[in-house]
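Service request form, structural biology core

Requester: graduate student, group of Dr. S.
Request type: structure prediction, single chain
Budget code: on file
Notes: please return the result as structure tokens.

Sequence provided:
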Amino acid sequence: MEFRTELKVQKSSWDLRHGHSVLSLGSCFADFIGNKLEQNQFEIVSNPFGTIYNPMSIFENLASCVEEKLIDLPAIVSSRGMFFSYRLHSEVFSESKEGLLKKIELIQEQVSKVLSKTDYLIITLGTAWVYELNGCTVSVANCHKMPAQTFKRRLLEVSEIVEAFTGLVQKVKAINPNLRIITTVSPVRHIKDTLVLNSVSKSILLLACHKASQLVPDVQYFPSFELVTDDLRDYRFYKEDLIHPNSVALQYIWEKFREMYFSEETRLISEDIASIYLALQHKTLHPNSCEHEQFKKKIVEKVNKLNVKVAIPRLIEEVNLKLKY
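Core staff response, request fulfilled:
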């Protein structure tokens, strides 16, 4: 007798391996995937624009980088004695408009450079609700605590998401024809929209991702949303806020991601890296003992052996720092 319906992911024809570079964008779930890949010693850039939930803001930011188009001035706002951009998260700010524009220019240059050579682009969509500035078509990534009457709020259509995504892919492919794109929908629930409208929003995103994967070459969908809501399907896999997946759920999603996109060799390397991090967490009562010295030497030997297979500079630095070598 079975008591749950496990989502069995189909092994992708793509082989995400060490040596590949990845750009991860979107909701806070994009940071989770980015952090996991970073821990596994991938070359990764995660959310340079900050956390962004709606697809139009993600697509518009990427398009601006490809076209080398500077941020439009109507998107700049002064709030609480600082300057922000409606197109970016509030973590990108400055005490002057000139300082903010310079920061944005540097971010755009970084993303443009990454896009031209990266192997994988991972886009995590959070909500189909979008805010737009009154009087113009600027999609707002973050309201920066400005009054609600500053914006109009609407629900995106599936067709406009797919159209915007298709146009973006064409632009990116012109500078990086080998790019592969993974889309996913965040399992984090936006209950401020109400549970009913959150479901409507997620449904629009799911359908848009499905259509995009059908219509656009080199696009695949990873089912992070379904793994939480249809597979795990229980509040014990959520944090206390009952909104965000907890560490158990996130680890489950990561294991499914590895199953879908990692080759056997990459998976084994990933497990070796995890075992080294686990060993680094070991606490000893006798740090000056011969036994502990042997323990440290075994870790270093394992790192050196792994470094022959794949470049792991960040891990080597962490091991040296932790073991004081």
